[in-house]
Structure prediction request, 106 residues.
Amino acid sequence: KAEESGNNNTSNPGQFLTQIIKGWIPVACPAINSAGTETLEMFPKSGIPVMGIYGSKDGMGKRVTEKLVQHAGAVGHEIKGSHPCYLDSPDDFMDLVRSFVDGLGR
Prediction:
């Protein structure tokens, strides 16, 4: 258990995030609509890059990505398609994902 091993980072969520997340790629994720500003601002404060992707026919995805850009320091990308843009434009989607992951370092 984290408490027993002395690795309980619940008092510093940003530090905990950097231990488990190297980058985040939400794809038109509606749950972000209910995320608070403070939660989203943990990502840039912790140095965790965020890339939002949405389809050109997905208004909700666009709004979510705009919120990520504003509060999480995300880079936003629109690709051709609807809500499941990864199905409509799989090559464009994978090019963006590969580029983002390659930029994270290893």
Confidence is low (pLDDT under 50) at residues 1-6. The chain has six helices and two strands.
